[in-house]
Every structure is written in structure tokens, then in C-alpha cells.
Design goal:
The protein is mainly alpha-helical. The chain has twelve helices and no strands. The chain has one domain. The longest helix is centred in the middle third of the chain and has 33 residues. Keywords: Membrane, Transmembrane, Transmembrane helix.
Length: 303
């Protein structure tokens, strides 16, 4: 790994790569919605995406001859992390299938708050002051983005939540499980090579998704060409973004700057408007910008 850069000296190549990953992740969820709207089930999408990504990262392990050496605590933690990421993947795609894509991702972007909560519960770590300062701001932005009183939708609070409540619940469940996975990763497997950890996690997620598809009667494949483009697109975009993340980013030295990738919901908002015809009210866009800016501030601040 070459000389890591700091946030203040982030190279143009590194910055562009981070933005590319954010764009691909946002596009992945738009492609997923195309697939869902054309007969693909959530479990099928996760199975395709995770299986291909696991194979790609496993190939990287072989090419780079990454040693596979697991300590007892790794063997205990990795299955738990894999299960959590599996639940997160299923829940987030379930949210994307029910909500405007950008709103699903904005609700999911509350995961830093969940991370702070789980670190406190499991390891007794007090939240950093900046997390406590960010919490009300992020929640206020999310309330605007979700139009909690139903003013922008014109449906009123009860009618609006009857329409979005299940999707928001799935997005928040995804954020909670992802935050827990991050805490376990940091404390139990932080010394493992990221590629090995990712290959293991994606493999477990793929198995979970395949079990889910079997319980549902088998893979639910697209019923129209658009669905195939969506399924192939989400698989390609997700797998490629992860490959870049674990091969290119370490060489560019972007440790500490990955918060830039949290601009993903903004890319998703634009793509969903252009491709899916989804739009949200201007006050919801403003709330979304507050959430994204707060998450980026949390990630980029050093103290």
C-alpha cells in the first residue's frame, strides 16, 4: 500500500475514483428498481449480485496470493458479520423496491448513528461529541426528506406513512444491521485483509439469498428485457464498484476519505429522475442534502 493521503491532500485521481464508486453504487440501486419492476425478487437480485462479487473478490485473493489465516475470534465473528450484511442487503433492496430510490438510500444513510449506538451497547464506547452534535441535524434532515407529516405528498401523515412506512422500516433495519456489522468488523476482524473479509462476507450473503429464493419457490427471473438489463446492471455495477474499492483505492491512499462516497443518494436521485421518472418535492431534496452533508462531515472531520 503506497503513501496514504490525508483529506487535505486527496489527489484528483483518488477523488474521482471515490465519486465513481458512489455513482456506481447509486446506479446499482436504480438498476435494481428496474429489475424489481419487471418480475425480479429481492432475494434473486441479492443472490446474483453477491455470488458474482464473491467470485470476483475470491479471484483477486488468488491473483494477489493473499494469505488465508484466521484466528479463533475471526472464525466466530465472520459468520455473524456475513449474516448481518445479508440481512442488510435484503432489507435495503426491499426498501428500494417500495420507495423512491433516493429516499431509501437517505434513510439507510443513518447508519453512522446506529454504529455509535452499537459501539456503546457492545463495547462501552461513548459516542464522539461530533456524533452527538450531528444526530439532531441528521434526523431533522431525514424528517424533511421523508416528508414525515405528509405535507408535500398532500396525503396527510397517516396516508403518507401508510404508503411509505414499510419501505422506511426496511431501510432503517438495513441501517441498523449495517451499523452493527461495521462495529463487529472494526473490533473483531479489523486486522484481516479487507479482500478476504469481503470475499467471506459476500459468500455468506450469497448463500443466504439462495436459501431465500429456494424458500420462495426458486429464482424469480425478469419477465421483460428491461428487467434483464436491470439485473445485469445491478450485478455489474455492484461487483465492479467493490472490485475497485479493494484493488484501486488502497493504492490511491484514500483511508479516511471514504465519506465522500456518501454522496451516493444524490447520484441516485438524479438517475432515478432521469431513468425511472421518480421525483420528490424540493423540501425533500433539501432534507436529503442535509443528511448527505452531515454524513460527509462525520466522515471527514478528524476531531
Amino acid at each position: 500500500m503506497t503513501n496514504p493521503t490525508t483529506a487535505s491532500s486527496l489527489s484528483r485521481a483518488a477523488f474521482a475514483t471515490l465519486l465513481l464508486i458512489a455513482f456506481m453504487m447509486g446506479a446499482n440501486h436504480v438498476a435494481a428498481r428496474l429489475a424489481f419492476d419487471n418480475g425480479v425478487s429481492v432475494a434473486t437480485a441479492v443472490a446474483f449480485r453477491s455470488s458474482v462479487t464473491a467470485l470476483v473478490v475470491a479471484g483477486i485473493l488468488l491473483v494477489y496470493r493473499v494469505p488465508v489465516s484466521l484466528q479463533p475470534r475471526h472464525r466466530k465473528a465472520l459468520p455473524a458479520i456475513g449474516l448481518l450484511v445479508g440481512v442488510q442487503s435484503l432489507c435495503l433492496y426491499a426498501a428500494v423496491a417500495r420507495l423512491p430510490v433516493a429516499l431509501a438510500l437517505l434513510a439507510f444513510n443513518t447508519y453512522p448513528l446506529w454504529t455509535a449506538l452499537w459501539a456503546r451497547v457492545f463495547y462501552g464506547q461513548r459516542p464522539q461529541p461530533r456524533v452527538l452534535r450531528a444526530m439532531p441535524v441528521m434526523l431533522a434532515g431525514l424528517a424533511l426528506a421523508l416528508d414525515v407529516f405528509g405535507a408535500a405528498s398532500g396525503l396527510g401523515a397517516s396516508g403518507h406513512w401508510a404508503r411509505i412506512g414499510v419501505g422506511v422500516g426496511f431501510a432503517l433495519a438495513a441501517a441498523a444491521t449495517f451499523g452493527m456489522a461495521l462495529v463487529l468488523t472494526q473490533h473483531e476482524t479489523g486486522d484481516l485483509d479487507g479482500r478476504l473479509r469481503t470475499a467471506t462476507t459476500m459468500g455468506i450473503v450469497a448463500v443466504m439469498a439462495l436459501i431465500a429464493t429456494t424458500a420462495q419457490g426458486g429464482l424469480a427471473l425478469p419477465t421483460a428485457p428491461t428487467g434483464w438489463w436491470g439485473l445485469l446492471g445491478l450485478t455489474f455495477l455492484y461487483g465492479t464498484a467493490f472490485t475497485i474499492m479493494f484493488t484501486v483505492l488502497p493504492r490511491l491512499g484514500v483511508v479516511g476519505n471514504s465519506a465522500i462516497m456518501n454522496i451516493e443518494p444524490i447520484f441516485a436521485l438524479v438517475l432515478a429522475w432521469a431513468i425511472l421518472g421518480q421525483s420528490i418535492a424540493s423540501v425533500q431534496v433539501a432534507g436529503g442534502l442535509v443528511v448527505v452533508a452531515t454524513v460527509m462531515w462525520l466522515g471527514l472531520r478528524k476531531g
